[in-house]
Structures
1.
Amino acid sequence: MKIAVLPGDGIGPEVTREAVRVIEALDLGIAMDEALVGGCAYKAKGHPLPAETLDLARASDAILFGAVGDPDCDALERHLRPEQAILGLRKELTLFANLRPAKVFAGLESHSALRPEVAGAIDLLIVRELNGDVYFGEKGFRQNAKGEREGYDIMSYSESEVRRIAHVAFRAAMGRGKRLCSVDKANVLETSQLWRDVIVEVAKDYPQVELEHMYVDNAAMQLVRAPGKFDVVVTGNLFGDILSDQASMCVGSIGLLASASLGERQTAHGTFGLYEPIHGSAPDIAGKGLANPMATILSAAMLLRHSLGLAQAADRIEAAVAAVLADGVLGGDLGGTAGTAEIGDAVLAKL
Amino acid sequence: MKIAVLPGDGIGPEVTREAVRVIEALDLGIAMDEALVGGCAYKAKGHPLPAETLDLARASDAILFGAVGDPDCDALERHLRPEQAILGLRKELTLFANLRPAKVFAGLESHSALRPEVAGAIDLLIVRELNGDVYFGEKGFRQNAKGEREGYDIMSYSESEVRRIAHVAFRAAMGRGKRLCSVDKANVLETSQLWRDVIVEVAKDYPQVELEHMYVDNAAMQLVRAPGKFDVVVTGNLFGDILSDQASMCVGSIGLLASASLGERQTAHGTFGLYEPIHGSAPDIAGKGLANPMATILSAAMLLRHSLGLAQAADRIEAAVAAVLADGVLGGDLGGTAGTAEIGDAVLAKL
Ligand SMILES: CC(C)[C@H](C(=O)O)[C@@H](O)C(=O)O
Ligand SMILES: CC(C)[C@H](C(=O)O)[C@@H](O)C(=O)O
């Protein structure tokens, strides 16, 4: 079993280090190899996603990813910017299914901007498509009929792209509360109309799942009003980007939220995937030992479960994290004083 | 001075009736003519936006709009559905600037799902572009290279479209807290890159306004975490649809929120525009006298201010609404028992 570790920029390396320590402590016989990605890869190799990084990722069963983003790279051409590394990995490795669970940890309800009874009820999973939509269509600048400069991006989804993510979402719903909410903007977009048609077709294979369609503007409202009403939400790349971040913030502690981006390839014991905390590279606190590594440690747990078939080890990590939080060992993001290594040590001590 | 009154579907007619009564009570010498729009127009005339409705709107200084949407019309072809009426009005009348203020009324902080101190701090204005973006680009179904069906929609903005809305937003910021947040997804979309370039260019004309750029996913997070930090937000049609609804729900009482959609044409005393409550047609409670007419009454106040230059009359209406709310006369949407006409009567009594 082999994991590619891509720490990336900013706080990426320090939070990844703690997650690696946790995996090592479990003594599971997993090989881990590191490679550069993002702004640091651009600086060292001239590209945010160097060929050797992609090769390492391809030769692994899973990727543990830190974060990318570096203010030094803001002025670069788009294709050289750090974010292109994550978009490139998603596309090159067909990581099409982003799973973002959002749930409030017991005792941390008061960290949300939502009223505690609203936040405490949140237990949802957003399934976001990652390989299509306006992210990867033709785009550029052109002259319009009036001779003016115009920026454009083509949004599109094909039937097979929607079908593939629909099956992931329906299966996820079967393993949870058996309710699926598909989010689109079918009253305006033909891309959404096709999305909706295919979702309805795939629903026939899952008669036990209660399916609902919701417009994206309404979904953004309901995620404020009553986020506890959602079980599984499935949506496209662009709406998923917005709604999954909104949902994460509802939980109130984005330093605790993990994510998985699964591909099509099966590994010996699961599905190939990339695992990353949902927070970014936070350049302002990078290198200071202040970042909360919990989201990356929980991403490592998802990795063990989904890509390596090590559900028991994943359970152990998640229980240790919950125990540390219950002890009140909190990072600065949650009003606590615990640093990166201290939180890592606390998790190791519980294991 | 002439207002076109377009009550529309569902609760549209009953809430509009109260707003019309309020305008009449002020005895401002305004002529008001009604026309059909939405599902009821389709049923009576075969089109959601009949030519005579558009003609009446064109011949007026402003439009007071109720709501459109009718479940009977869900199965119709897209171009005949009720929502096309509002999209058609926006496009045909060049109503390009949607202004959506969101502010919590004193005493109603506890109606938000956000903690009262978070909700109570909200006082923002979203300026949404309404004539461009993926809403009005070429769209349809096509076969992709693999021979599969694909839905597509072209997103685009030209320089002049962005410049026009940028000036509206900067001027609005000058009249408020002098802070503007422009929301885009420039790390992925070329449409957003052009948007950002033009915003930066227009900013030179408003050196007193503090400008910030924010990615849409981050904006969706910040609207949960600390919505009180925003002053004016400017964004495109699609992101504006999502974020303005999210912001409205943060306030907790969408039955109280008004909106203006302004055009380019100047009237004798202001700018031609369409005014509507942000809530929809709510078919489930239509015709029962239960709907809260406050948002439409407040839309009428915006109409008097922006299109007819009657700022004093607008102030009087807004003060009357605030007084009625302070008296605890609340609709069912706010946990009260007051019906549509009762709330209208209470506002009239205060005038
Ligand atoms: C960095 C950016 C391109 C990316 C996205 O929009 O997908 C990020 O926001 C995310 O959600 O992983
Ligand atoms: C009805 C729909 C087409 C419309 C939109 O998306 O603009 C509505 O959601 C709005 O915000 O006015």
2.
Amino acid sequence: MKLSEFYLPTLREVPGDALIASHRLMLRAGMMRKLANGLFAYLPLGLRSFRKLEQIIRQEMDATGSLEVKPTVVVPGELWKESGRWEAMGAALLRVKNRLGADFVVSPTAEEALTAIVREDLESYKQLPLSLYQINTKYRDEIRPRYGVMRGREFVMKDAYSFHADDASLDKTYADMERAYRRIFERCALTVIPVKADSGAMGGSGSEEFMVESSIGDNTLLLCPSCGYAANVEKAACRSDAPTPALSIPLLEKIDTPNVKTIKKLCDFLKIDAKRFIKTLFFRALNVEADLQAETGVQSGCTKETFFAVCIRGDLEVNEVKLAAVLKAGEVALAADSDVERLSGAPIGFAGPVGLSSVPIIADETATAMQGAVTGALERDMHYKNVCAGRDWTAQLVCDVRTVKAGDGCPSCGAALDEKKGNELGHIFKLGRKYTSAMQVSYLDEAGKSQTPTMGCYGIGLDRTLASVIEEHHDEAGIIWPIALAPFHVVIVPVKYDGAVKTAADTLASDLQKRNVEVLLDDRPERAGVKFNDADLIGIPYRVVVGDKNLAQTPPKFEIKRRGADQAELVECGAAAEYLAGKIRVTTQAP
Amino acid sequence: MKLSEFYLPTLREVPGDALIASHRLMLRAGMMRKLANGLFAYLPLGLRSFRKLEQIIRQEMDATGSLEVKPTVVVPGELWKESGRWEAMGAALLRVKNRLGADFVVSPTAEEALTAIVREDLESYKQLPLSLYQINTKYRDEIRPRYGVMRGREFVMKDAYSFHADDASLDKTYADMERAYRRIFERCALTVIPVKADSGAMGGSGSEEFMVESSIGDNTLLLCPSCGYAANVEKAACRSDAPTPALSIPLLEKIDTPNVKTIKKLCDFLKIDAKRFIKTLFFRALNVEADLQAETGVQSGCTKETFFAVCIRGDLEVNEVKLAAVLKAGEVALAADSDVERLSGAPIGFAGPVGLSSVPIIADETATAMQGAVTGALERDMHYKNVCAGRDWTAQLVCDVRTVKAGDGCPSCGAALDEKKGNELGHIFKLGRKYTSAMQVSYLDEAGKSQTPTMGCYGIGLDRTLASVIEEHHDEAGIIWPIALAPFHVVIVPVKYDGAVKTAADTLASDLQKRNVEVLLDDRPERAGVKFNDADLIGIPYRVVVGDKNLAQTPPKFEIKRRGADQAELVECGAAAEYLAGKIRVTTQAP
């Protein structure tokens, strides 16, 4: 491809709102342009890399035995109402009414569509397992799209869905997918951190996210430097750090704490550590699943709000995602002050579990492990001391909802955990029967009995994967593409596209093309410096400079430089095509 | 690919609402499933053919020098307001409000998006011509989606847009695209009829549609059996069939025609032919372009409605699309009866051009060619006779708006035209500066002067192209795929997948795969008849039957049958892979 016949509007200026390297470089290199907030159009250069990523993912999906399908992007709202996500997804779901007033969704994901497709034809256990995937446009109506395609509104996702007769079959496909994901990221030269994850609004049992470390990451990861334990803070556990229980605790005692409304003030007032205090928070939950109702008394029902209290050790925070997962709730948030005062019967700052009967009590394990604690007394200016779980109060449910932090003990080996920020590129889930039950999918087992299949789902965001590759592979001058994703393998830069230099450049381009090497020939009448800058900016792995001086050597030579390398090397013209083809071939073959 | 590892839910029943062969067969063969009215999901079998079509189109677009891009599917409504199509497109445009209340469009086409992308970086004439294309999801909120993917709501379109400094450059790209389209359809083994077409709401000067003949076609085509002239009725012209003018015509005379309100009654009453009558119709137009205002007095302005009368010979019909094109109007429709009575000052049935001053008069050429005609007299129960154009009335604009019919004379050679129904698969347009002016695109020419580029656009609907291939290539038993689009090239049917038959089938499959032949191996424990039926239904070009009897021959043989052929042939097992590979190779190479 001659550059004069290509469309490469590179920019010298750094666009003002581009805060991260990939956003800046994708704009500067002419890979994409912004159509609106969170909406980006890929230009020819960007699309070449995008298609290569698509192909890598397709190959690895095919290798797992998954079959490609193409549902529509716009799907009937009815399907989302069947699954319950029409309500549960909130404002990020782009809802549309058509000309006849019927509800539609611009798909953010396709559990419903794929489940609907499969249920139409699924009859027998002989058809299972079944794994289907698509690589297709998705839309999430993000409230604050940022960082270019890293957090855009429209994006392309590969999403696979598998259907199984039993857990063992789901486990096998899940493991196959995990391996496929590792290979995909490896082929993209991406350093990913697989972490244990919460299954979120998708429902289900097990899930793992594939993260890349990033200063602008919207996920917090807890990583063990010793044993390799890795989890999203939304899922992370830690070793118990409860103090040894005392042998005896005096009786519960009410104490005067005039105007002492915060833990900090209370610590100062009583001269105790925050770890001696039980913090009691009121939450409001939506869409709590029915099976929790009996256990906890928390009311279930679609979009019905319900209140409850959470007790946790005073130095810790409650992680709302862990809490929502425990409750199988669509949404969990701190209750409003007015609700807290109504439910606790006291001003803000004096809540506690002793005598609390207006709402169910959910206790973090750290709260029930405390003997002789201090808590609010549900009365203005009053606290209790010597509070003992089991003796003075009981919880309807004891669970782990604390926010794990750097320094907490690894749940596997006890070493101090590290904390990092990460961006999620992929996510694999064991969904269980959430969708297949709600949408009434069934098949006949070997005994002729009707059964509901269990399900897995597996996503990768293509746009943010591509952006993450640039985040990991760039320098001051521009992108440094791994060969597998490079828009072209080789850029030929004739210092002047004329005479013997032109002939040598054209011959090399043609020799490379015969060897399936993708070549960009910079035939523009620009200064060599301009061409070098553009070549570095767009990040082509190999640059061949064709100049009079080296052509005049015996034998004539080209200057070949690997993008990002310090040194160029001189290679005989006659051997250059095979030399470069060899470099490309080794790195672009599927493993 | 083993069939047991593929997903092929074939159906024996013909779905009730599937009225045409492609709709029926795509459902029965398990190529697709319906998600909602006009929304179809491609299953693995269908997607394999779909991707091949996509690749043929991509290759032919690349060969024209067009570069692939990927704008978003959801685009800002602002862009559509800039171009004026937010209003002009009507209810078929799927409009969405996001969570912040901003307007968006689920793209039915991408003139706006591509123009917006190009205007951001276009600076110099050196960047022109520029041709960009996408193969992407589109949405048209069809009021009555029908016939499967032939007239669906969501579909995939290849749409290309070219930008030029001058008409000569546009003409060249337009001609390149026309050739590319012919090659695309040829590679798909489709018989297309390129016809002259109206440019519709897209605006512009020249355009050509690529049609396939179809009994359910929503286009009427006029075709000359003699010289090859071919046009959509929305554009078709014909030879003048005006009678020789009389030497002298008596003066205008008002005649009593009590209660004679229709042309038929009038013909009976006056004992004249309908060809002697001038029919006067009142129309209402929206969005008439400004440059017509001066010429005709028809009011221009976005969404502003304006009325006018059209005169035509009594035996002819007015084609509203031709009329809208003449007026450069967004929409044209017959006026309501109440408007007609108000504007003509008479009851329905007595309109005529003589003395009509309430609205501008547009005359079809057939009306001004008439001397001594009969027309309504703008008065209850009264007509005029001896009406002469020029003497008794004049038109503000004379043009060709008649609906050409079978039997009318070809405008090129005069032979009687044929009429056929057709479906549009592709459409190429010279858009001119409609979008680049409205959206203020400019570049500097060689003299440093700011100029507006001219533009072309070029679309192909992938889904209906695929369906049309099935319409043209099927029989009672199922689809007969041309090799270039076949989901698999060869289906191997072992009569029983066991013992020596299994070994021979597996060996052939492996030998074919080594030769890049795509093989489906029917390893199901089904009766041979079931397998044969499915193979015929899904339309795989070559079927190889592996059976004990032919394997027992010396040398052992396979039975090979071309789908759709009458006879099978026996081929030696050792030669079969190369024999089949040879057949496939010849037909799948790009021309």
